[in-house]
């Protein structure tokens, strides 16, 4: 709700001492109380008024509330009194705060009353000219005399309206003359003159300045002129009146209005022509100032004499001359239905045969009405009683009076029909006439005899019952025969068409049926006997009925199931009470002997139940196909005979699968290995998962949970292959998550497994010298260093790992006199001769670093060793303790060679022993992984080490065809012969199975060659270490002899 805060303006000030008056506070909506005064003194000086005074007017949302002095005020006591004016918005009092405004009341010297108790009254005629003179407040209030003609005071006086400025008047602020500001229209909605004899407009004139403040009450009376005509709501009216209207009834009501003042408004009415004696006028004033005129009937109407009247109603106002308004009224006299229809006969009779064809006209009635139009048009119909009983059998045409039979009639049902017919005209007050129509039916033989049977059975059965052992002549049933026709048409004769029963006539239309023989229910349990009855009409009609005779039973049959075996299906995870199947059995006995009770085998009653009456088998528990996919048990049917008989049937319930199992991997995690640099689509490994559901719910696909551009997982087979070349130096291991997801979209289930793929190293990087290099390649040595002194140490790097990164250092050239020796493993350069003879000479050595991978890569560099005679002998580097020189080197080489030969002999002995064990295990049908491992060592094939040189500074062995000196190096090839299908050992050599870890993928076998099959998983630690130690010793013995390179490297 929007709240508009009050906007108080200056209060009416200038209270005069010792005189009573009022102060006005102008606010939107004001509510004041004594509690709003600030001090007790203020409460004593003024009284508040919480409602507007009677002469207060609400203008532009403003209310004037007077504050009156409660006693006389004296200036000599105080010049100014302060009060507070409070306002509250009543439209939302609970949300509007009390706004208080302080008003100072200046007490002035007594110069006169605050406001004259008299009111200046002026008159002005409406429709006058703009600016017409109304009155002179200055003159009429005798202000000149009041201020003793003081020109200074009179020149200060200013006049203004406190209210009423919007009512068409203005006041000259200096002269106090009031004039019209617009053309005054007394009938205007903005003036409160409607329907008033005297129209006064109240004006409040304020005189300022404050020290001369006065409020002058002015009342301006608006004099009315007769400037409006009486106006009817319509110019002309046509109205219809029935000729049967009663005298003094109102037949027409009109409204007429004149907006002038009551004395100039409508004064009288006149009905023309004056010779009219049939109608008269009455009038009454309404609340809105209009007059309601009623045209009343003061005589009777006769349409046949006068069919219409043309009248004029004239209204006269009170002006001089008076103004008039009129309306033309045409009264049309409507015909009254004052004649009733008359039938040509008060009663009509007709006879028809009962087999008349329908629909067919059987009689026509006729009536006349002397009236005209609708009053003379006749509508025929049936009386209410006839419609109630015979509306579905007879109809009457409402226009022609034809009576038709629409349904067959039956003499035996109703031989005579009496119908009441009516004739009704269509006038507004319809008149009617009645007549009767008697329809007599003529009988024909249209009914066959009717046979009814009573077996006298106590159980209420419609069939007749004969005991199995009843003798001939036993009563079976009683018959009665009727024919609703009359005469010979109703006389009947009956017979049977059975040889087992006879019909005995008792008396008129009564018969009984007896047996002619004994019966066997097992041979035939029921007999059908036809009874034929024929009347003597012309033509005669025949009736037939069949009587079923049941032979009572003894319990001599056992129940029989409809099927010996019931195959049913039950969806797993079913709810308790789910219906699996329904078994049914029949018993050829009757009655209680044929009532069957079903039961189920005791062994499965905790799983299934059977309804004893319906044979419905229900599950008592929720079944799981993955635990039990089929249930087989017996169900029994037992009758209620004495003694009871029973039968059994087998029930096989097949549990139908739902997708409630998810694929499960056969391992909690997988680890695979694959060599780097293998081409795309190289097989890495195989994932295997199983889904315990049945088809199609056991169908699933494999996928990686995360995107990878390195590997592809076949969604069907679970086979992992590479997508691209792998680089071990870029990434050595991939940790992936694989998913097995159901294909069934409605309820997909899945499982995940972690897959680790290790990238095995291949020798795809060339060693690189750290020292010597192009910027640092010179070493100075004193001439008197001892034999075996370490001059420097070569340093090179290879980003590969294992053997591929194990480097062998050699002096390729520049050391023809064997002045220096080199440790091939450590790269330390040692003094091998006395250097004093080479004083101030320099040696330019071509040194190489070669890895132990396959193929081998080699790089070279130039090392300058300068023998300086002026240098002092420096202490030997710490590595000198590891250096070998002179005779010691020869001894070590000899020992290493001897150890290598001994090791080879031991390895061969182990191989022989393992082969014997393998043959023994094969004869016993067993497999020993450790024994099979030794088959890896099956002869030492020498691997060629190709040395070469290139301007690029590196050589890849095994692929160059240049002039290279060949030097043999031992190669050991491993192979594993398997009789089983162990996937761990059946590898292509490019990847490994999941049991190989990262250490196995990076074997440190020195220069031993690894065959493409790789290393299997059957090694023991001591066997693998024995192989490594043996082969490395042989390789070291070979590498101690420095190879020769053709050509010399050149610094770029």
UniProtKB/TrEMBL annotation:
Segments crossing the lipid bilayer: 92-115, 889-913
Gene3D superfamilies named among the record's database cross-references: Cadherins
Q: Where is this region: Disordered?
A: 41-61, 943-966
Q: Where in the cell is the protein located?
A: Cell membrane
Which UniProt key words apply to this protein? Calcium, Cell adhesion, Cell membrane, Glycoprotein, Membrane, Repeat, Signal, Transmembrane, Transmembrane helix
Give all residue intervals belonging to the Cadherin domain: 116-232, 233-343, 344-451, 458-561, 562-665, 666-769, 773-877
Q: Which SMART domains match?
A: CA
One GO molecular function term of this record is: calcium ion binding
Membrane topology is: Single-pass type I membrane protein
Q: Which domain of life is it from?
A: Eukaryota
Question: Compositional bias of type Polar residues: which residue ranges?
Answer: 41-55
- This protein's major location comes to membrane
Q: Known Pfam families for this protein?
A: Cadherin (PF00028), Cadherin_2 (PF08266)
What name appears for this protein in its UniProt entry?
Answer: Protocadherin-20
Q: Which organism does this record belong to?
A: Paralvinella palmiformis
């Amino acid at each position: 709700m929007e709240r508009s805060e009050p906007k108080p303006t200056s209060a009416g000030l200038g209270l005069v001492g010792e005189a009573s008056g009022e102060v006005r506070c102008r606010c939107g909506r004001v509510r004041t109380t004594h509690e709003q005064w600030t001090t007790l003194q203020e409460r004593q000086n003024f009284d508040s008024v919480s409602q507007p005074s009677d002469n207060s007017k609400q203008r532009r949302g403003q209310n004037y509330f007077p504050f009156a002095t409660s006693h006389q005020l004296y200036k000599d006591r105080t010049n100014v009194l302060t009060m507070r004016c409070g306002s509250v918005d009543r439209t939302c009092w609970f949300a509007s705060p009390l706004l208080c405004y302080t008003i100072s009341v200046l007490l002035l010297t007594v110069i006169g009353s605050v406001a004259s108790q008299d009111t200046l009254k002026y008159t002005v005629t409406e429709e006058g000219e703009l600016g017409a003179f109304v009155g002179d407040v200055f003159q009429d209030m005798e202000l000149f005399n009041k201020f003793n003609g003081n020109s200074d005071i009179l020149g200060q006086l200013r006049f203004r309206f406190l209210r009423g400025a919007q009512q068409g008047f203005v006041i000259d602020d200096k002269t106090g003359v009031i004039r019209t500001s617009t053309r005054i229209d007394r009938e205007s909605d903005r003036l409160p003159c409607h329907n008033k004899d005297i129209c006064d407009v109240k004006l409040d004139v304020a005189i300022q300045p404050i020290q001369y403040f006065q409020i002058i009450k002015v009342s301006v009376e608006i004099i009315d002129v007769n400037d409006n005509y009486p106006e009817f709501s319509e110019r002309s009216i046509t109205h219809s009146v029935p000729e049967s209207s009663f005298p003094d009834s109102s037949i027409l009501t009109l409204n007429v209005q004149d907006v002038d003042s009551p004395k100039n408004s409508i004064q009288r009415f006149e009905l023309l022509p004056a010779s009219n004696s049939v109608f008269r006028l009455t009038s009454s004033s309404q609340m809105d100032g209009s007059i309601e005129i009623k045209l009343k009937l003061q005589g009777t109407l006769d349409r046949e004499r006068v069919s219409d009247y043309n009248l004029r109603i004239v209204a006269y106002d009170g002006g001089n001359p008076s103004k008039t308004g009129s309306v033309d009224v045409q009264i049309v006299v409507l015909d009254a239905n004052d004649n009733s229809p008359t039938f040509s006969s008060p009663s009509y009779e007709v006879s028809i045969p009962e087999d008349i064809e329908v629909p067919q006209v059987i009689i026509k009635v006729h009536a006349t009405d002397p009236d005209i139009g609708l009053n003379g048009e006749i509508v025929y119909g049936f009386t209410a009683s006839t419609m109630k009983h015979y509306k579905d059998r007879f109809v009457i045409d409402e226009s022609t009076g034809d009576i038709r039979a629409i349904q067959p009639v039956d003499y035996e049902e109703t031989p005579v029909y009496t119908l009441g017919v009516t004739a009704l005209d269509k006038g507004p007050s319809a008149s009617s006439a009645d007549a009767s129509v008697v329809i007599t039916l003529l009988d024909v033989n249209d009914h066959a005899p009717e046979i009814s049977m009573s077996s006298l059975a106590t159980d209420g059965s419609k069939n007749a019952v004969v005991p199995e052992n009843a003798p001939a002549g036993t009563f079976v049933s009683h018959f009665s025969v009727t024919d609703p026709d009359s005469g010979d048409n109703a006389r009947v004769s009956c017979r049977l068409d059975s040889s087992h029963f006879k019909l005995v006539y008792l008396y008129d239309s009564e018969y009984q049926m007896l047996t002619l023989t004994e019966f066997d229910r097992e041979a035939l349990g029921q007999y059908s006997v036809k009874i034929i009855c024929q009347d003597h009409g012309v033509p005669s009609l025949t009736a037939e009925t069949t009587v079923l005779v049941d032979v009572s039973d003894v319990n001599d049959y056992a129940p029989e199931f409809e099927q010996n075996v019931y195959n049913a299906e039950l969806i797993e995870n079913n709810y308790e009470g789910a219906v699996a199947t329904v078994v049914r059995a029949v018993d050829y006995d009757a009655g209680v002997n044929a009532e069957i009770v079903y039961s189920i085998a005791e062994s499965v009653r905790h799983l299934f139940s059977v309804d004893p009456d319906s044979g419905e088998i229900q599950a008592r528990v929720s079944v799981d196909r993955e635990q039990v996919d089929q249930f087989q048990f017996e169900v029994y049917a037992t009758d209620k005979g004495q003694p009871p008989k029973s039968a059994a049937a087998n029930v096989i319930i097949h549990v139908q699968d739902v997708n409630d199992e998810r694929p499960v991997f056969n391992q909690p995690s997988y680890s695979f290995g694959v060599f780097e640099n293998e081409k795309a689509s190289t097989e890495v490994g195989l994932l295997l998962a199983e889904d315990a559901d049945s088809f199609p719910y056991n169908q699933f696909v494999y996928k990686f949970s995360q995107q990878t551009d390195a590997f592809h997982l076949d969604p069907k087979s679970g086979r992992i292959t590479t997508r691209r070349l792998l680089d071990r130096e870029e990434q050595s291991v991939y940790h992936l998550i694989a998913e097995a997801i159901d294909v069934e979209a409605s309820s997909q289930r899945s499982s995940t497994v972690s897959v680790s793929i290790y990238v095995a190293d291949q020798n795809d990087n060339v060693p690189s010298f750290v020292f010597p290099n192009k910027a640092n390649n010179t070493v100075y040595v004193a001439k008197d260093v001892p034999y075996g002194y370490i001059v420097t140490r070569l340093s090179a790097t290879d980003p590969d790992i294992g053997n591929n990164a194990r480097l062998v250092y050699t002096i390729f050239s520049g050391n023809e006199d064997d002045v220096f020796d080199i440790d091939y493993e450590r790269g330390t350069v040692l003094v091998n001769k006395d250097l004093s003879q080479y004083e101030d000479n320099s040696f330019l050595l071509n040194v190489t670093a070669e890895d132990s991978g396959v193929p081998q890569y080699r790089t070279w560099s130039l090392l300058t060793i300068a023998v300086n005679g002026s240098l002092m002998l420096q202490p030997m580097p710490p590595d000198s303790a590891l250096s070998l020189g002179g005779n010691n080197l020869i001894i070590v080489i000899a020992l290493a060679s001897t150890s290598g030969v001994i090791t080879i002999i031991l390895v061969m002995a182990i191989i022989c022993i393992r082969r014997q064990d393998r043959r023994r295990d094969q004869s016993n049908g067993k497999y020993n992984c450790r024994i099979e491992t030794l088959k890896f060592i099956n002869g030492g094939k020498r691997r060629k080490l190709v040395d070469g040189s290139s301007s690029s500074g590196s050589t890849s062995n095994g692929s160059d065809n240049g002039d290279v000196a060949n030097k043999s190096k031992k190669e050991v090839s491993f192979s594993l012969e398997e009789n089983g299908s162990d996937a761990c050992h059946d590898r292509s050599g490019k990847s490994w199975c999941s049991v190989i870890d990262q250490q196995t993928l990076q074997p440190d076998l020195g220069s031993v060659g690894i065959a493409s099959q790789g290393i299997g998983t059957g090694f023991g630690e001591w066997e693998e270490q024995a192989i490594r130690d043996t082969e490395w010793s042989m390789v070291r013995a070979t590498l101690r002899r420095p190879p020769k390179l053709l050509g010399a490297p050149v610094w770029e």
